[in-house]
């Protein structure tokens, strides 16, 4: 008779769009290019970013005139429990009357596409890519001067 029992949920129809429970959730895995669709990526890889953090998402959304909240939550499909992968962003997309809070972002997908295009332009991202290129060049030039293993004794 378990089928006849109602399922308990936190959502009720009398909650307004301005209530924090009605805001949409964004996890960094949604726009992570290194994740597969099965692991939680929501967009095509061409619109995604390598290993975004909740801080980068918050930085981009703070400029968009949307109400943003950060929660210390872990994405359920995330295998690693490290601090790098923690964080959930809550965003209010709609007003209480159902109209978009910001007309530029009427849907969740439009907001995710915006994040995918703006996160690579952050100064913190541009500094990381420049730092990653320099050690790779140094390693490739030093690798040419290495000697062989030598004699075994």
UniProtKB/TrEMBL annotation:
<keyword id="KW-0687">Ribonucleoprotein</keyword>
<dbReference type="GO" id="GO:0005730">
    <property type="term" value="C:nucleolus"/>
</dbReference>
<keyword id="KW-0733">Signal recognition particle</keyword>
<dbReference type="GO" id="GO:0008312">
    <property type="term" value="F:7S RNA binding"/>
</dbReference>
<dbReference type="InterPro" id="IPR002778">
    <property type="entry name" value="Signal_recog_particle_SRP19"/>
</dbReference>
<dbReference type="GO" id="GO:0005786">
    <property type="term" value="C:signal recognition particle, endoplasmic reticulum targeting"/>
</dbReference>
<keyword id="KW-0539">Nucleus</keyword>
<dbReference type="GO" id="GO:0006617">
    <property type="term" value="P:SRP-dependent cotranslational protein targeting to membrane, signal sequence recognition"/>
</dbReference>
<comment type="similarity">
    <text>Belongs to the SRP19 family.</text>
</comment>
<dbReference type="Pfam" id="PF01922">
    <property type="entry name" value="SRP19"/>
</dbReference>
<dbReference type="InterPro" id="IPR036521">
    <property type="entry name" value="SRP19-like_sf"/>
</dbReference>
<feature type="compositionally biased region" description="Basic residues">
    <location>
        <begin position="144"/>
        <end position="153"/>
    </location>
</feature>
<comment type="function">
    <text>Component of the signal recognition particle (SRP) complex, a ribonucleoprotein complex that mediates the cotranslational targeting of secretory and membrane proteins to the endoplasmic reticulum (ER). Binds directly to 7SL RNA. Mediates binding of SRP54 to the SRP complex.</text>
</comment>
<keyword id="KW-0694">RNA-binding</keyword>
<feature type="region of interest" description="Disordered">
    <location>
        <begin position="122"/>
        <end position="153"/>
    </location>
</feature>
<protein>
    <recommendedName>
        <fullName>Signal recognition particle 19 kDa protein</fullName>
    </recommendedName>
</protein>
<keyword id="KW-0963">Cytoplasm</keyword>
